[in-house]
Predict the structure.
Amino acid sequence: MARVLRVARSSSLFSFGSRSYSAEASHVSSPPPPFLGARRGFTKERNVQWVFLGCPGVGKGTYASRLSSLLGVPHIATGDLVRDALASSGPLSQQLSEIVNQGKLVSDEIIVNLLSKRLEAGEAKGESGFILDGFPRTMRQAEILGDVTDIDLVVNLKLPEEVLVDKCLGRRTCNQCGKGFNIAHINLKGENGKPGISMDPLLPPPQCMSKLITRADDTEEVVKARLRIYNETVGPLSLLSLPFSCEAMLDALNDCVQSQPLEEYYRSKGKLMEFDLPGGIPESWPRLLEALRLDDYEEKQSAAA
Ligand SMILES: Nc1ncnc2c1ncn2[C@@H]1O[C@H](COP(=O)(O)OP(=O)(O)O)[C@@H](O)[C@H]1O
């Protein structure tokens, strides 16, 4: 039977259809080892169920997608689900475009429904496990997820705030092959004991160059609103220095219900792995694999095959 997240408006009850998930029946040892042991979640019954947290622009999509290929689990980005819904014709599209283009969060009900449909379709195709990117974004979403399934590990990617806006503004997607690139040159000098960060642009191959598009919500104003909302709902980011003056952003802030930050929620459950990205993909990817204790994963997989 299909696994479905169902929303009951009057209560916190959501369900993953027939699967016997229980918040109590966690296979996670307590207290967890440092960085949780990356192999948490690899069981005979199912594959990993991981969540990627991180500010807009931090690279969640990039690293979640690489890990999903490595581990053979689907990478499910709720931002992509929202963009697919936006691209479809229908009343939902119109409703979403106003919300997304102001940098606001889509309602928990809409996002849970989109995710539910995606999981259902995946299960029908025989998918097992997942890496969620962009979900949960609110405490309510985290509670819903916690009610219906066990999350093994929450990876919290971090970059200095100065880098995030530039990275968002540098994002490009090829409208033909769908791959993501980044044209930003990041070169942040180290100061006050903090290391500098430099990232080369991730440039597209020549055939994609003329087909690059920028996300409609990657304007400076909307990016800053999204970063502020992230700060309020997920975890602290010292963004107070950013100049916020536009009305859309103030609306977004007013709409943003202050909730206990998600980072703290998962930290208190011993599931949070913090990861400060040391630079671009060439520096960060091997270090991330090491932190996840997956550095020898490919070798072991091929040896076992
Ligand atoms: N879990 C979620 N809850 C509410 N809104 C979401 C969620 N995931 C995505 N969205 C909506 O989709 C937009 C794009 O999401 P995403 O691609 O994850 O962007 P980013 O991480 O760059 O902010 C968000 O700004 C928000 O409007």
